[in-house]
Amino acid sequence: MKRDELELTVRLYRSLRRIRRVEEEIVRVYPSDSIKSPVHLSIGQEAVATGVCEALEPRDVVFGSYRGHAMYLAKGGSLPRMIAELYGKADGCARGKGGSMHLVDVERGVMGTSAVVGTTIPNAVGYAYALKHRRENRIAVSFHGDGATEEGVFAESLNFAALKQLPILFVCENNGYAIHTHQSRRQATLDICTRVRAYGIPAETIEDGDVFRIFQAARAAAAAVRSGSPGPRYIECITSRWLEHVGPGEDFELGFRSREETEAWRKNDQVARLGGMLPAPQRSVIDEAIEAEIAEAFAFAEASPFPPAGELLMHLYR
């Protein structure tokens, strides 16, 4: 492996492994009731956020859905402040008042996630509109799920982004389900990219979850958007969530999907794949550093105070 290829593999593995282990620790802690917020976990989907965010520059911004831990961490959001937010503590990234579904770290370009399906799509488009008017050489990225493509605001936002030729990259994390309903039971046409191209937006689908392919596609799309060649781009990444829609458990017993649906994805786990590409000693150093960072983040959350009652009505629009 060439040096630049090795360095890329190390960065991607570190991000993938870090996201996976953070969420596995959330799963472990969740039954204790220390975490005060519902959690929508990205276990199995880490390659999308990792590949895309690796292709971005620090000055670029991202907007995401309620399943946003992976995006937040991959873009460089503060891990201690994220865990403190899950704990409902004052040192959380939203002062303990937003929880898992409302993560933000403006300094790192994480402009926010939202519990309401599709709502950050127009937020991202609006930010991209501002970037164009300010003539800033930055791009906005909108992460959303396949369910969000059914919202009216999705069509409106794509139309406006195409009309104004905005510097935005749309990324669909398509895990095939909106809560418990498969895409085939919700959409007459499953080809999301065909719908996107109707607005004149170049779009492509990556079906195998290969983190290198996602990175390469995102890098090319981001470069095109940044150069103004012109306007938005769209990437649909087929993926798989291994756990339940919300919570730390599994949902196969509910009958809406089978364990077999996730087996091929588990065998193609990008965390294990990239870990296997690295020398064992180098991988161990990375893994140990991640474990230490996670332990410190959870200790930080434990030690942080709860916000005072006087803050209850602060930071609200009336």
Annotation field: number of helices: 11
Could you say what the CATH architecture is? 3-Layer(aba) Sandwich
Taking Cα atoms only, what radius of gyration do you get, to the nearest Å? 19 Å
What would you give as the CATH superfamily? Thiamin diphosphate (ThDP)-binding fold, Pyr/PP domains
Fraction of helical residues = 40-55%
Count of domain modules? 1
Content of β-strand: 5-15%
Name of the CATH first level: Alpha Beta
- What would you call the shape? globular
Overall pLDDT: 96
Distance between the termini: 57 Å
What order do the helices and strands follow? HHEHHEHEHEEEHEHEHHH
**Structural class estimated from helices and strands:** alpha/beta
What are the segments in which pLDDT stays under 50 over at least 5 consecutive residues? Answer: none
Strand order of the largest sheet: 2-1-3-4-8-7
The beta-strand count equals 8
At CATH level 3, the topology is Rossmann fold
